[in-house]
Design a protein that fits this description.
Elements lengths: L7 H9 L4 E2 L20 E2 H15 L9 E10 L2 E12 L2 E12 L6 H21 L4 E2 L2 E2 L18 E6 L17 H11 L1
Length: about 200
C-alpha cells in the first residue's frame, strides 16, 4: 500500500476485488477448505471486505496520530472464518508497546457469544506473544521448546489496556472461533510499526 501510495484499508479492499464466491478449482488450485465443501462454506469476498470495513470504521481509521504511533491492519480467512485485526502501537527508540488491539470476526452463526469473545481475547494475546517473543528452535530434528515454561507468552504488563472484540451477526453455518483470531495479529503489529 505504501509503495502504491494508497491507504492500507483501500488497498486491501481493492486487492480483494468485487463481491463474489471464489472457486479455486477453476484456476487449477486444490483448495482444502478445511475439509468442508465450498457449497456449504463458500469463500466469500464480501464477508472478508465486511470485517475489514467494520474494523476500520470502529477504530476511527485515518485519524491523525502523534509521532511514534501507528495503526496497522491485517485480515484473513482461517478455519472458515473471516477475521480482521487492528493494532495500535507506540514506538520510542528501540521500545515497542502495543496499546490497543481490536478484532472483528464473522464466524457464521454464534451459539455462545461470551465464549467467542473469550476465544478472541485469548487469540489476541497469543498472537501478540507470537509477534513479540515467538520462536521455536530445533536440535537434531526435534523442537527444543516443549511447553510454556520455555516458550514465553505475554505477561499482564505487556498486555494492551484496550482489547476489543466484535462478532458480526450472521446466518451462515457456524465456523471456527479458536485459532482464526491469531494469524492476523503479527502482520497488523508489523504494519502498525511501519506506520509509526
Amino acid at each position: 500500500a505504501h509503495a502504491a501510495g494508497k491507504d492500507p484499508r483501500d488497498f486491501w479492499l481493492e486487492l480483494i476485488g468485487p463481491d463474489r464466491d471464489i472457486d479455486f478449482a477453476k484456476d487449477g488450485f486444490k483448495f482444502s477448505n478445511h475439509g468442508q465443501s465450498l457449497e456449504v462454506f463458500p469463500y466469500q469476498t464480501a464477508r472478508l471486505k465486511n470485517v475489514i470495513t467494520q474494523l476500520t470504521d470502529s477504530i476511527g481509521w485515518g485519524e491523525k496520530l502523534p509521532p511514534g504511533q501507528g495503526w496497522g491492519i491485517a485480515a484473513t480467512r482461517s478455519f472458515l472464518t473471516y477475521v480482521a485485526v487492528a493494532c495500535k502501537v507506540e514506538v520510542d527508540s528501540d521500545q515497542l508497546r502495543v496499546t490497543e488491539m481490536h478484532v472483528v470476526m464473522d464466524c457464521g452463526t454464534v451459539v455462545n457469544p461470551d465464549r467467542v469473545h473469550a476465544q478472541l481475547e485469548g487469540s489476541m494475546l497469543f498472537g501478540l506473544s507470537l509477534a513479540l517473543m515467538g520462536e521455536i528452535t530445533f536440535e537434531n530434528g526435534a523442537a527444543v521448546q516443549s511447553n510454556f515454561h520455555d516458550y514465553p507468552v505475554v505477561r499482564m504488563s505487556q498486555t494492551p489496556a484496550v482489547i476489543k472484540t466484535h462478532i458480526v451477526p450472521s446466518d451462515s453455518p457456524p465456523a471456527g472461533v479458536g485459532e482464526p483470531g491469531v494469524p492476523a495479529v503479527a502482520p497488523s503489529i508489523a504494519n502498525a510499526v511501519f506506520a509509526a
